[in-house]
Amino acid sequence: MKAPQTSATAVKTTGSRSWKAWAAVAAGGLVGTELRYGLGVLFPEQAGSVPWTTLAINVAGSFVLGMLTTVWIARPHTSFWLRAGIGPGLLGSFTTFSALVASVDQLARGGFHAVWMSYLVLSVLLGLAAAALGWRTGKAIAGEGGTP
Protein backbone atom coordinates (compact mmCIF):
# COMPACT_ATOMS: atom_id res chain seq x y z
CA MET A 1 0.00 0.00 0.00
CA LYS A 2 1.28 3.44 -0.94
CA ALA A 3 1.57 6.03 1.80
CA PRO A 4 -0.55 9.14 1.32
CA GLN A 5 1.26 12.20 0.00
CA THR A 6 1.95 14.99 2.40
CA SER A 7 1.44 18.53 1.25
CA ALA A 8 5.24 19.02 1.09
CA THR A 9 5.58 15.97 -1.16
CA ALA A 10 2.71 17.14 -3.35
CA VAL A 11 4.30 20.58 -3.76
CA LYS A 12 7.68 19.04 -4.58
CA THR A 13 6.14 16.73 -7.21
CA THR A 14 4.08 19.53 -8.74
CA GLY A 15 7.05 21.90 -8.75
CA SER A 16 9.26 19.34 -10.46
CA ARG A 17 6.58 18.66 -13.04
CA SER A 18 6.08 22.36 -13.57
CA TRP A 19 9.69 23.29 -14.37
CA LYS A 20 10.05 20.39 -16.79
CA ALA A 21 6.87 21.42 -18.60
CA TRP A 22 7.95 25.07 -18.76
CA ALA A 23 11.37 24.10 -20.09
CA ALA A 24 9.82 21.75 -22.65
CA VAL A 25 7.37 24.42 -23.83
CA ALA A 26 10.22 26.93 -24.17
CA ALA A 27 12.42 24.47 -26.10
CA GLY A 28 9.51 23.36 -28.28
CA GLY A 29 8.56 26.98 -28.89
CA LEU A 30 12.07 27.77 -30.06
CA VAL A 31 12.11 24.82 -32.46
CA GLY A 32 8.60 25.51 -33.80
CA THR A 33 9.35 29.18 -34.37
CA GLU A 34 12.56 28.38 -36.22
CA LEU A 35 10.79 25.77 -38.38
CA ARG A 36 8.11 28.30 -39.31
CA TYR A 37 10.73 30.96 -40.07
CA GLY A 38 12.78 28.53 -42.18
CA LEU A 39 9.78 27.50 -44.24
CA GLY A 40 8.90 31.16 -44.74
CA VAL A 41 12.40 31.81 -46.08
CA LEU A 42 12.34 28.72 -48.33
CA PHE A 43 8.83 29.44 -49.62
CA PRO A 44 8.24 33.21 -49.53
CA GLU A 45 4.68 34.42 -49.87
CA GLN A 46 3.69 36.76 -52.68
CA ALA A 47 1.95 40.01 -51.77
CA GLY A 48 -1.70 40.06 -52.74
CA SER A 49 -2.06 36.29 -53.01
CA VAL A 50 -3.14 33.52 -50.68
CA PRO A 51 -0.33 32.97 -48.14
CA TRP A 52 0.16 29.33 -49.13
CA THR A 53 3.12 28.72 -46.83
CA THR A 54 1.24 29.88 -43.74
CA LEU A 55 -1.83 27.92 -44.82
CA ALA A 56 0.21 24.72 -45.33
CA ILE A 57 1.96 25.17 -41.96
CA ASN A 58 -1.32 25.66 -40.10
CA VAL A 59 -3.06 22.75 -41.84
CA ALA A 60 -0.10 20.40 -41.25
CA GLY A 61 0.02 21.45 -37.60
CA SER A 62 -3.71 20.83 -37.21
CA PHE A 63 -3.25 17.31 -38.54
CA VAL A 64 -0.30 16.53 -36.27
CA LEU A 65 -1.96 18.02 -33.19
CA GLY A 66 -5.19 16.10 -33.88
CA MET A 67 -3.23 12.88 -34.29
CA LEU A 68 -1.02 13.33 -31.22
CA THR A 69 -3.88 14.42 -28.98
CA THR A 70 -5.84 11.31 -29.92
CA VAL A 71 -2.84 9.06 -29.28
CA TRP A 72 -2.15 10.77 -25.95
CA ILE A 73 -5.77 10.31 -24.86
CA ALA A 74 -5.54 6.60 -25.67
CA ARG A 75 -2.12 6.31 -24.04
CA PRO A 76 -2.19 8.70 -21.09
CA HIS A 77 1.14 7.45 -19.76
CA THR A 78 2.97 9.88 -22.06
CA SER A 79 4.93 12.31 -19.90
CA PHE A 80 3.20 15.61 -19.23
CA TRP A 81 6.35 17.61 -20.00
CA LEU A 82 6.66 15.88 -23.38
CA ARG A 83 3.03 16.58 -24.29
CA ALA A 84 3.47 20.21 -23.21
CA GLY A 85 6.69 20.60 -25.19
CA ILE A 86 5.30 19.14 -28.40
CA GLY A 87 1.71 20.44 -28.19
CA PRO A 88 1.65 24.04 -26.94
CA GLY A 89 5.42 24.45 -27.36
CA LEU A 90 6.47 23.17 -30.78
CA LEU A 91 3.10 23.01 -32.53
CA GLY A 92 1.76 26.12 -30.82
CA SER A 93 4.65 28.21 -32.14
CA PHE A 94 4.75 26.44 -35.51
CA THR A 95 1.04 27.01 -36.16
CA THR A 96 -0.12 30.40 -35.02
CA PHE A 97 -3.46 32.11 -35.20
CA SER A 98 -1.63 35.43 -35.16
CA ALA A 99 0.06 34.61 -38.50
CA LEU A 100 -3.36 33.95 -40.02
CA VAL A 101 -4.78 37.19 -38.60
CA ALA A 102 -1.75 39.21 -39.73
CA SER A 103 -2.05 37.84 -43.26
CA VAL A 104 -5.80 38.51 -43.40
CA ASP A 105 -5.27 42.05 -42.09
CA GLN A 106 -2.51 42.75 -44.61
CA LEU A 107 -4.59 41.44 -47.51
CA ALA A 108 -7.69 43.37 -46.37
CA ARG A 109 -5.73 46.62 -46.02
CA GLY A 110 -4.33 46.05 -49.51
CA GLY A 111 -7.83 45.75 -50.93
CA PHE A 112 -7.51 42.03 -51.78
CA HIS A 113 -10.91 41.18 -50.33
CA ALA A 114 -11.62 38.05 -52.38
CA VAL A 115 -8.16 36.71 -51.50
CA TRP A 116 -8.39 37.24 -47.74
CA MET A 117 -11.93 35.84 -47.60
CA SER A 118 -10.84 32.77 -49.60
CA TYR A 119 -7.79 32.35 -47.37
CA LEU A 120 -9.88 32.58 -44.21
CA VAL A 121 -12.44 30.04 -45.47
CA LEU A 122 -9.68 27.69 -46.67
CA SER A 123 -7.90 27.98 -43.33
CA VAL A 124 -10.98 27.05 -41.33
CA LEU A 125 -12.18 24.24 -43.62
CA LEU A 126 -8.77 22.68 -44.29
CA GLY A 127 -7.74 23.08 -40.64
CA LEU A 128 -10.84 21.27 -39.42
CA ALA A 129 -10.48 18.56 -42.08
CA ALA A 130 -6.81 18.07 -41.19
CA ALA A 131 -7.62 17.83 -37.47
CA ALA A 132 -10.36 15.26 -38.22
CA LEU A 133 -7.98 13.24 -40.39
CA GLY A 134 -5.37 13.50 -37.65
CA TRP A 135 -7.91 12.23 -35.14
CA ARG A 136 -8.72 9.23 -37.35
CA THR A 137 -5.01 8.56 -37.89
CA GLY A 138 -4.38 8.82 -34.14
CA LYS A 139 -7.14 6.32 -33.42
CA ALA A 140 -5.61 3.92 -35.96
CA ILE A 141 -2.14 4.35 -34.41
CA ALA A 142 -3.55 3.82 -30.92
CA GLY A 143 -5.23 0.62 -32.12
CA GLU A 144 -8.77 1.88 -31.72
CA GLY A 145 -9.72 2.01 -35.40
CA GLY A 146 -10.39 5.23 -37.27
CA THR A 147 -14.19 5.28 -37.27
CA PRO A 148 -16.08 7.90 -35.24
Question: What does this protein look like?
Answer:
- This protein has 148 residues and is mainly α.
- 78% of the residues lie in helices and 0% in strands.
- The chain is built from 5 helices and no strands.
- The longest helix has 36 residues.
- The protein is globular, with a radius of gyration of 19 Å.
- The N and C termini lie far apart (40 Å).
- About 5% of the residues have low confidence.
Brief descriptors of the model:
single chain, 148 residues, mainly alpha, 5 helices, globular
Task: Summarize the entry for a quick read.
This protein is mainly α and 148 residues long. Helix content is 78%, strand content 0%.
For the CA atoms, what is the radius of gyration? 19 Å
Strand content: under 5%
Number of DSSP E strands: 0
Broad shape: globular
Helix content: over 70%
* Largest sheet features: none
Task: Report the mean per-residue pLDDT as an integer.
Answer: 88
* Number of helical segments with 4 or more residues: 5
How far from one another are the termini? 40 Å
Order of helices and strands: HHHHH
Poorly predicted parts: 6-12
The helix/strand class is mainly alpha
SSE order and pairing:
Blueprint: H1 7-42, H2 52-74, H3 80-94, H4 97-109, H5 113-141
Helix pairs in contact: 1-3, 2-3, 2-5, 4-5
